[in-house]
Amino acid sequence: VGTWRLHRPHGLILAQFTSPGPKYAIPGTTGYLGHNPTKTKAPVCAFQRAKPPVEDNCSPGPRYYVPPSITRNGKYVPPAQHICGLPKTKTEITPGPSDYSTEKANKHLYKCASAQSMAFRHKAFKTDQPPGPGAYTLPRLVGPNTAYTHASPCYSMRGRSKHNDFAEDLSKTPGPAAFATVDLDVYTKRAPKYTM
Fold first, then answer.
1. Lowest-confidence range among 35-44, 48-57, 119-128?
2. What does the alpha-carbon distance between residue 157 and residue 162 come to, in Å, rounded to a whole number?
3. Contact criterion met (CB below 8 Å) for 56 and 48
4. What is the pLDDT of residues 130-175, one digit of tens each?
5. Please, are residues 144 and 151 in contact by the beta-carbon 8 Å criterion?
6. Backbone phi, psi, residue 22, to 5°
7. What are its GO cellular component terms (predicted)?
8. Entry pTM
């Protein structure tokens, strides 16, 4: 019709909406602010920010500085020696260097090489003869009581026992009539007893 042609509208047209329009939109159901009052709210969880790092020094400050030597038991004092003057000594007359004569000494006190002397055997020397090689006995190497080696199995031989021997006289053993009769009530059920 004339120069008019079908085109896309530049703005909102009220005839395209069935509701009163976007101006009167219903509040949303998400979030905490501007929530729809006709709908129930879900539980709200808030994320807390990270805590600042803990400081190493938690003292009141440099104004209230406590020396490290102060403890709960008082001031710590390390062990120390007291410095004092020299003790008073009584002066005595002592010999000087020229009062000694080392030539008259029988034994030298300074370091010298060892000297060996030859002399006869002393008269008080013992003439006891030491034991010879055959005077000692070697420890046992066989048997249970050895000193340095492991004990080997030992077996001993003895005579035949006379009990249950083929030469045993069985007529000397007690027979069945040699034993007393045992009451039946000892090993069986006791029978009832009646008294008059």
1. 119-128
2. 15
3. no
4. 788 888 877 777 767 777 777 767 777 888 777 777 777 777 778 7
5. yes
6. -65, -15
7. cytoskeleton
8. 0.16
Mean pLDDT of the chain: 77
Q: How many CA atoms lie within 13 A of 3 on its CB side?
A: 0
**How many whole angstroms separate alpha carbon 46 and alpha carbon 174?**
104
In contact, 141 and 149? CB cutoff 8 Å = yes
**Three-class DSSP labels, the chain:** CCCCCCCCCCCCCHHHCCCCCHHHCCCCCCCCCCCCCCCCCCCCCCCCCCCCCCCCCCCCCHHHCCCCCEECCEECCCCCCCCCCCCCCCCCCCCCHHHCCHHHCCCCCCCCCCCCCCCCCCCCCCCCCCCCHHHCCCCCCCCCCCCCCCCCCCCCCCCCCCCCCCCCCHHHCCCHHHCCCCCHHHHCCCCCCCCC
**Predicted confidence band at 105 (pLDDT cuts at 50, 70, 90)?**
low
